[in-house]
């Protein structure tokens, strides 16, 4: 920061006595300065310090002046106790008085209300009111100021108190300073910044302290000690800096936080007042000896750049590091004046007045913006330039360079022959970096930090202003004092070229031959030795990376995206395709890429053309290049022929034909013109054509003439070549569908080749009916099947398969794949099954099953598992070698189907707010599922949900013992958070219930009549006879069914015939009753004899030995089968290789229905209701109208 005096004036009275300058005020537009000097108010022109007019109206010393924000009026206050309001035309319009001398005045920035303060009171006046409202105070007011929104007025007093009042003069906040009356508040100022979230008040007192407060009275930070008595505090217009003066006879610049930055100007007497010109860097001082000094503050740019990271000083005490590509920024608060900044790779050096801080990046990530302190060098250094390397800092002071380690140890020192004007790190290994140094005498040196000796690269006659070295270290660009950019070859010292009007230069870090330089408001880009390309740009170029140019304009750095089209075309004009491609990679438009690809292709640089066409995704030209490359591999090397093909692709047919002829390939030209129907040009090449080419030429020529004009000449030409083949080709070319099918119908079926040509043509144009007719005529059934499949005419294909079963796989496999592509997986599975593709059918079902489980569609999962089981049963029947494996899978899938069918109800009950199931059904379902989850738990089934549902329904139905057991089991499982509260409450309440279960719920075995416990260690079998329970597939109640087995020599067919015999039972009425008749009465007498159990052979078979550890099945003979009633027997008629299963109902009055497809048992009423609801079996989804 430098302060440049603009003008100075000294105020005397008529007797040449110096007049103290007590206050100053700028007109809001900054053109005039109002000065309180003696008993006059002086008005100065701020441009040159000319006194515009002295204003007389006060009779005593003027202590204060203030200008309204709208610039229409200003006020002055004097020791004569009066306030005068002046217009901007310097005319007095109003005067009012106080009881004491006026100490300060301030205009409200919003309402233009004037606050005038005296020793004993303060007044508030506005143009709208006639009188001045005055308010008494307990101490002398020394200073005042309004907040930015004009809502509050702060008063500084001799007692050390700051009083904050509202617009009506009422005190809202009182700030009592620690020094009291011994530290009178002499100056206050509100920060005018709009970026601050709170109103901030700066308070300076004669206790030599500067403090900051919020509007609420809360102090911000600690007091700043000044070492002088402050007389004035003034903020810059944007609030970034403070100007302060006082008994130290100088004005100083501070940050908005009170950190001293430097001296603005030193004077011979106290500085009583200082003000900042609005929206500028001009400061004016008023001194006790009458001096008025006007200064311009010049803030130099302190910054550093390395590749895409730019570090610069902000607010004099902060450092902002900006990533120029990602636009990320990070602020480092130093809280002291930042003097120098240097950045290199991961290092950042910041010089403060008394130390140098070395920062490093927290990680190796190229986008990381987090810096941490690595080292602190606590020493004061004086230097002109600062450079940082990986392990050193370089200090430059005029002619001397010093290399210091991060621990402040001086390792090396170089003394130059002239002043150092420019220094830059050009990279290198850590600890051995190279420096590029430019001197005032024109010498350019290279220095390595680990070497005491410098290397002179070259020496020119003019002073160096800016330097940069190319990436390969072969070229050096210099900007001299005459603003000329000179480029040298480092090895030969030869001047390659020079350009005028340059103030800075930078090489492109990604392209060796490109540099840019700025000057005279233009950006200049130069590639190799080509002419310079210019575009407008304000600022200095400081870096060039790819297509981005880093430009510093005033204090801001910006990354400018510059298209590289101009240098690319310069290379293209000279046929330098590789170099042009490198330039294009830096950033050009799609049209530029297309031009590059086309030029490279015409120049037969196929490698560059291929990469460029790939960039624009032109597949047509890529195919051409690939074909040419394949031909070159086969030994072709005729470049003229390759170029002719390129011209033909580009539509340059005549150029292509000339090259074809020159290369001896007239036939290619003839084919090209014939394909294009350019027969007039094709005639020139007929001499070298073979017979076949001539035939095609005349055929197409006549066809074309016939289609265009219908002239007789075409018919004559056709007379020579009138064959079915050419006629078909002509009709295809002319798209005459009806004539073509007529011709095909007239042809004999033995003419297979032309008929096939017609069929293919009709199939291609989706005339499938004509194609099918032709294939039928030919008897080509395979082609007909393929036609129906490709056209997705499945009904026709199925009809054909019924007559020709050998095409079954072709049709059904394609149909299944089509169904799967359209998400119709169940139908696809059936189609695969019909096609005999069992593996694909099983795979589709397994995927469907897995998806249903993952998506919690457990009803669907049950259905798919049942289908899988039946699929395995089909495979076991057809493939003998897989029988055992498939039967094992069948039983596993049947079991899983039943579990998921049951769990569907549990999951619905636990996840939905309402359930359609009665508590008894949910209880039975949960108990059945719990008994089946003792070992492995299938995927998707929650043991927690099962146990919790069982516990809740047990509690509702009075099975408290089961409920407690379920809650105990739950405590060993991981419980979801949503169940915690309700589960803990239920667990506590169930303990208050009796420890037994309701007898109504106890299940009974219908074979041995044993009551089984609700929680059975045998699972779903009787604890006594081990007979498995048969459950209803809807309510899961135990059905009165007992499974029985046939003797070994009885077949299923014989068993069914024996049962169907329906042998009539002996009427035992006479044996059990006796009829007695008398004259007066007739009665029946019950015989007391007990019926012998052996009379029912099946009942006799149910006998067992109590407590047996093994299950003893019921095996029946022919006599027993004959004794059974058909109505009491249910038969599961499993397909081979499974055996049939037989069940007898022990309670014939209980109606039981069995599904003929899945063989699940239901109470008849439940089954009928479910079928009405779903229109199918609830388990296997068999439609009710489907035949068994």
TrEMBL record:
InterPro entries in alphabetical order: Beta-prop_IFT122_1st (IPR056153), Beta-prop_IFT122_2nd (IPR056152), Ift122/121 (IPR039857), TPR_IFT122 (IPR057411), WD40/YVTN_repeat-like_dom_sf (IPR015943), WD40_repeat_dom_sf (IPR036322), WD40_rpt (IPR001680), Zn_ribbon_IFT122 (IPR056838)
Keyword Repeat belongs to the record: yes
GO-annotated biological processes: intraciliary retrograde transport; non-motile cilium assembly; protein localization to cilium
Cell compartments where the protein resides: Cytoplasm, Cytoskeleton, Cilium basal body
Residue ranges annotated for the Intraflagellar transport protein 122 homolog TPR domain, each copy included: 564-945
One Pfam family here: Zn_ribbon_IFT122
Gene source species: Triplophysa tibetana
Keyword Repressor: no
Superkingdom assignment: Eukaryota
GO cellular component: intraciliary transport particle A; non-motile cilium
Name of this chain's protein: Intraflagellar transport protein 122 homolog
Domain IFT122 second beta-propeller: 303-557
């Amino acid at each position: 920061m430098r302060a440049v005096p603009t003008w100075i004036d000294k105020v005397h009275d008529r007797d040449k006595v110096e007049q103290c300058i007590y206050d100053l005020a700028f007109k809001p537009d900054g053109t005039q300065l109002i000065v309180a000097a003696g008993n006059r108010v002086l008005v100065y022109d701020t441009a040159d310090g000319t006194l515009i007019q002295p204003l007389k109206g006060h009779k005593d010393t003027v202590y204060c002046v203030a200008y309204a924000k709208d610039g229409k009026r200003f006020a002055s206050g004097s020791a004569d106790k009066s306030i005068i309001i002046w217009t901007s035309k310097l005319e007095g319009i109003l005067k009012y008085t106080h009881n004491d001398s006026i100490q300060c005045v301030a205009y409200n920035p919003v309402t233009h209300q004037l606050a005038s303060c005296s020793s004993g009171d303060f007044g508030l006046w506005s143009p709208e009111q006639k009188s001045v409202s005055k308010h008494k105070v307990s101490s002398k007011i020394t200073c005042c100021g309004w907040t930015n929104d004009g809502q509050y007025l702060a008063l500084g007093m001799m007692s050390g108190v700051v009083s904050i009042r509202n617009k009506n003069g009422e005190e809202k906040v009182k700030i009592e300073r620690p020094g009291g009356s011994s530290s009178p508040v002499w100056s206050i100022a509100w920060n005018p910044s709009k970026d601050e979230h709170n109103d901030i008040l700066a308070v300076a007192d004669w206790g030599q302290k500067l403090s900051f407060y919020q509007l609420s009275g809360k102090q911000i930070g600690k007091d700043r000690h000044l070492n002088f008595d402050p007389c004035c505090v003034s903020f810059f217009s944007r609030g970034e800096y403070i100007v302060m003066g006082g008994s130290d006879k100088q004005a100083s610049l501070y940050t908005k936080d009170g950190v001293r930055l430097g001296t603005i100007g030193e004077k011979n007497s106290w500085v009583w007042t200082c003000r900042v010109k609005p929206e500028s860097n001009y400061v004016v001082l008023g001194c006790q000896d009458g001096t008025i000094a006007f200064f311009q503050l010049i803030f130099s740019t302190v910054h550093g750049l390395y590749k895409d990271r730019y570090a610069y000083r902000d607010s004099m005490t902060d450092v902002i590091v900006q990533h120029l590509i990602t636009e990320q920024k990070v602020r480092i608060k130093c809280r002291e004046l930042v003097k120098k900044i240097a950045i290199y790779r991961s290092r950042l050096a910041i010089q403060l007045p008394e130390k140098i801080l070395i920062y490093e990046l927290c990680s190796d990530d190229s986008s990381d913006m987090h810096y941490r302190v690595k080292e602190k060098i606590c020493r004061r250094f004086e230097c002109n330039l600062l450079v940082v390397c990986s392990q050193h800092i370089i200090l430059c002071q005029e002619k001397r360079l010093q290399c210091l380690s991060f621990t402040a140890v001086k390792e090396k020192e170089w003394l130059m022959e002239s002043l150092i004007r420019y220094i830059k790190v050009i990279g290198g290994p850590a600890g051995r970096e190279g420096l590029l140094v430019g001197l005032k005498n024109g010498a350019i040196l290279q220095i390595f930090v680990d070497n005491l000796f410098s290397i002179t690269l070259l020496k020119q006659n003019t002073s160096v202003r800016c330097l940069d070295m190319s990436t390969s270290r072969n070229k050096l660009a210099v900007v001299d004092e005459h603003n000329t950019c000179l480029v040298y070859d480092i090895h030969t010292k030869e001047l390659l070229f020079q350009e005028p009007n340059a103030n800075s230069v930078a090489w492109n870090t990604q392209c060796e031959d490109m540099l840019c330089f700025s000057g005279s408001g233009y950006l200049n880009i130069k590639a190799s030795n080509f002419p310079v390309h210019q575009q407008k740009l304000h600022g200095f170029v400081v870096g060039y990376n790819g297509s981005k140019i880093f430009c510093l304009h005033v204090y801001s750095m910006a990354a400018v995206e510059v298209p590289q089209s101009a240098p690319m075309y310069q290379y293209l004009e000279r046929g330098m395709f590789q170099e042009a491609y490198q330039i294009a990679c830096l950033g050009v438009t799609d049209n530029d890429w297309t031009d590059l690809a086309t030029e490279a292709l015409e120049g037969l640089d196929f490698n560059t053309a291929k990469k460029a066409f790939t960039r624009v995704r032109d597949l047509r030209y890529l195919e051409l290049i690939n074909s040419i490359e394949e031909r070159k591999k086969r030994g072709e090397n005729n470049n003229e022929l390759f170029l002719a093909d390129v011209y033909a692709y580009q539509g340059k047919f005549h150029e292509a034909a000339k090259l074809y002829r020159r290369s001896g390939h007239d036939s290619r030209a003839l084919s090209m013109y014939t394909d294009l129907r350019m027969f007039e040009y094709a005639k020139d090449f007929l001499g070298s054509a073979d017979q076949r080419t001539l035939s095609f030429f005349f055929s197409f020529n006549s066809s074309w003439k016939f289609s265009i004009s219908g002239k007789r000449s075409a018919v004559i030409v056709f007379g020579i070549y009138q064959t079915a083949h050419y006629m078909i080709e002509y009709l295809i070319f002319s798209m005459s569908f009806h004539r073509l099918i007529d011709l095909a119908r007239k042809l004999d079926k033995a003419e297979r080749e032309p008929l096939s040509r017609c069929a293919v043509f009709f199939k291609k144009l989706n005339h499938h009916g004509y194609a099918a007719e032709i294939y039928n005529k030919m008897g080509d059934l395979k082609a007909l099947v393929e036609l129906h499949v490709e056209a997705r005419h499945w009904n026709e294909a199925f009809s054909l398969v019924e007559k020709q079963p050998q095409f079954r796989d072709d049709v059904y496999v394609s149909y299944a794949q089509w169904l799967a592509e359209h998400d119709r997986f169940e139908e696809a599975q059936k189609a695969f099954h019909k096609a005999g593709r069992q593996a694909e059918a099983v795979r589709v079902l397994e995927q469907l099953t897995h998806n249903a489980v993952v998506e919690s569609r457990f009803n669907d999962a049950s259905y798919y598992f049942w289908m899988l089981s039946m699929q395995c049963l089909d495979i076991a029947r057809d493939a003998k070698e897989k029988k055992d494996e498939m039967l094992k899978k069948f039983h596993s899938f049947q079991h899983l189907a039943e579990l998921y069918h049951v769990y569907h109800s549990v999951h619905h009950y636990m996840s939905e707010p309402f359930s359609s199931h009665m508590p008894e059904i949910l209880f039975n379902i949960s108990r059945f599922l719990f008994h089946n989850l003792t070992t492995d738990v299938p995927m998707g089934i929650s043991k927690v949900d099962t146990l919790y549902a069982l516990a809740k329904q047990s509690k509702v139905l009075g099975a408290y013992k089961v409920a407690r057991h379920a809650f105990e089991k739950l405590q060993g499982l991981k419980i979801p958070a949503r169940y915690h509260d309700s589960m803990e409450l239920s667990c506590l309440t169930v303990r208050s219930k009796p420890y037994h279960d309701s007898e109504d719920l106890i299940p009974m075995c219908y074979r041995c009549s044993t009551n089984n416990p609700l929680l059975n260690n045998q699972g779903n079998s009787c604890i006594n006879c081990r007979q498995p329970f048969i459950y209803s597939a809807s309510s899961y109640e135990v059905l009165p069914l007992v499974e029985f087995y046939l003797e070994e020599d009885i077949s299923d067919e014989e068993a069914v015939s024996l049962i169907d015999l329906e042998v009539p039972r002996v009427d035992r009425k006479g044996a059990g009753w006796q009829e007695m008749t008398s004259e007066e009465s007739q009665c029946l007498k019950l015989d007391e004899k007990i019926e012998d159990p052996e009379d029912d052979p099946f009942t006799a078979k149910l006998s067992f030995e109590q407590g047996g550890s093994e299950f003893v099945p019921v095996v029946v003979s022919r006599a027993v089968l004959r004794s059974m009633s058909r109505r009491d027997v249910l038969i599961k008629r499993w397909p081979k290789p499974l055996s049939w299963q037989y069940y007898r109902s022990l309670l014939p009055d209980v109606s039981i229905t069995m599904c003929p497809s899945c063989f699940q048992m239901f109470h008849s009423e439940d089954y009928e209701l479910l079928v009405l609801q779903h229109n199918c079996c609830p388990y296997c989804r068999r439609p009710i109208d489907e035949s068994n």
